[in-house]
């Protein structure tokens, strides 16, 4: 019997990494989720237009990842604020770096009251470790330490082995993340 609980894990997943998948699997298992949605905003708040593959190709790679994980869903949204993205979900999954932003009044024009209003409207929040940011007591996900240094930026620029297998296969075919010029040539032809 399933719990019926559904979680969301917002991000750009550009590219999806082995750490993203480890966090998703940990949240699914540790929070007793029936489903976890990777949620991608069409326009991410506070981020420049991402380099690399088109939005459609990035979503296609995520769909490929979800195809082999029946508990994993993909959702595209126009929402940018986490409180809006998480609306209707039981659990919100974040990295410790993102959690640090969520609780920082600077993101709310310096208003503790505005921050507290948003925090009160969030569902249960679970936080994946991301040194050097702290994980709040009682909210931490247990994730293998091998995933701590992994980042999407690093997967694009330093360590392609950090890409999820499905992303690495797409990159090998197209150069989407490791050879953007080859990817652009393929898109333009």
Structure description:
This protein has helices at 18-30, 55-67, 82-85, 96-102, 112-121, 152-157, 165-174, 180-188, and strands at residues 6-10, 35-41, 72-77, 91-95, 124-128. 33% of the residues are buried. Helix 2 crosses helix 7. The N and C termini lie far apart (50 Å). Helix 1 links the parallel strand 1 and strand 2. Helix content is 38%, strand content 15%.
Q: Give the strand line-up of the largest sheet.
A: 3-2-1-4-5
Helix/sheet category: alpha/beta
Largest sheet: 5 strands, parallel
Question: What is the end-to-end distance?
Answer: 50 Å
Task: Quickly describe the structure.
Helices cover 38% and strands 15% of the residues. With 189 residues, the protein is an alpha/beta fold.
Topology (SSEs and partners):
Blueprint: E1 6-10, H1 18-30, E2 35-41, H2 55-67, E3 72-77, H3 82-85, E4 91-95, H4 96-102, H5 112-121, E5 124-128, H6 152-157, H7 165-174, H8 180-188
Parallel strand pairs: 1-2, 1-4, 2-3, 4-5
Helix pairs in contact: 2-7
């Amino acid at each position: 019997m399933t719990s019926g609980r559904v979680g969301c894990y917002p991000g750009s997943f550009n590219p999806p990494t082995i750490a993203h998948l480890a966090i998703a699997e940990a949240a699914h298992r540790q929070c007793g989720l029936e489903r976890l949605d990777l949620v991608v905003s069409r326009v991410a708040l506070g981020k420049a237009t991402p380099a690399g593959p088109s939005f459609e190709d990035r979503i296609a790679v995520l769909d490929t990842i979800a195809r082999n994980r029946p508990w994993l869903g993909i959702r595209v949204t126009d929402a940018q604020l986490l409180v809006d993205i998480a609306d209707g979900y039981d659990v919100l999954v974040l990295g410790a770096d993102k959690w640090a932003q969520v609780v920082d009044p600077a993101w709310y024009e310096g208003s503790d009251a505005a921050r507290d209003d948003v925090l009160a409207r969030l569902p249960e929040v679970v936080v994946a470790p991301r040194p050097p940011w702290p994980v709040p007591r009682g909210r931490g996900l247990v994730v293998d330490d091998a995933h701590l240094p992994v980042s999407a930026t690093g997967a694009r620029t330093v360590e392609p082995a950090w890409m999820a297998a499905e992303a690495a296969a797409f990159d090998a075919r197209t150069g989407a993340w490791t050879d953007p010029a080859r990817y652009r040539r393929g898109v333009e032809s």
